[in-house]
Specification:
200 residues, Glutaredoxin, alpha+beta, binds glutathione, 58% helix, 8 helices, Glutathione S-transferase Yfyf (Class Pi), Chain A, domain 2, four-stranded mixed beta sheet
Length: 200
């Protein structure tokens, strides 16, 4: 199989999700920091959105992480269940991770990242944390007693593991009331893909 090339930023949740997908699908990949040396000028020509991740595979170039997940699933035959109905939930949860869970978390990270603690806006952090906790409730209910969000490891695991990994690093723990989600995250962190892809 031809090697994948991923233009990447370590702490970007979209990039981390793709690193996880590549690792879990056991696809060969070269990870390039998008701002290193020549990579920056190459990357700028590849992404019309000027965002990372960008994924190249042979003559295919992808610049939206949702499409990358679909491509990785198509190429590897992993990460998505078989039927249209079974595929719907992991796709929806992946979207939920980016569009809903990510909103509160982003507020907290942008407030804390690269700033001394004395400059943090605590109200903004509290608001972001509350939004994040609100979004977690739906995930805990959806997971229930299952090992994975779908029948097996897939899109939801890649997307949510990256978000929860970032949350943990920036001081937000999954509330104790969501024991199922805490256990799920612990299991995700024990997988080889986590240590292989974590920026922390
Ligand atoms: N919808 C895009 C969003 C990607 C995105 O927002 N990436 C951010 C980093 S997390 C980015 O590249 N920002 C510009 C920069 O860092 O220079 C995707 O899913 O791939």
């Amino acid at each position: 199989m031809e090697t994948f090339v991923l233009y990447d930023k370590p702490e970007c949740p979209f990039c981390w999700k793709i690193r996880l997908a590549l690792a879990e699908a056991e696809l060969p990949a070269e990870i390039i920091h998008y701002q290193h040396g020549n990579a920056e000028s190459q990357w700028l020509t590849l992404s019309p959105n000027k965002t990372v991740p960008v994924l190249q595979h042979g003559d295919v170039t992808l610049y939206e992480s949702a499409i990358m997940l679909e491509y990785i699933a198509d190429v590897s035959g992993r990460l998505l269940p078989q039927t249209a109905g079974e595929k719907a939930l992991p796709r929806l949860l992946h979207r939920y991770s980016d569009m809903t869970l990510g909103v509160g978390l982003r507020k907290v990270i942008f407030e804390k990242r690269d700033k001394p603690e004395a400059d943090w806006n605590q109200q903004r952090i509290a608001e972001g944390t509350e939004d994040f906790f609100d979004a977690l409730r739906f995930l805990a209910d959806t997971l229930g007693d299952n090992d994975y969000f779908a029948a097996e490891y897939g899109f939801a695991e890649c997307a949510l593991t990256a978000r929860l990994g970032l949350a943990q690093h920036y001081g937000i723990a999954i509330p104790e009331g969501h024991a199922n989600l805490r256990d799920w995250f612990q299991r995700m962190q024990q997988r080889p893909s986590y240590s292989l892809t974590s920026p922390f």
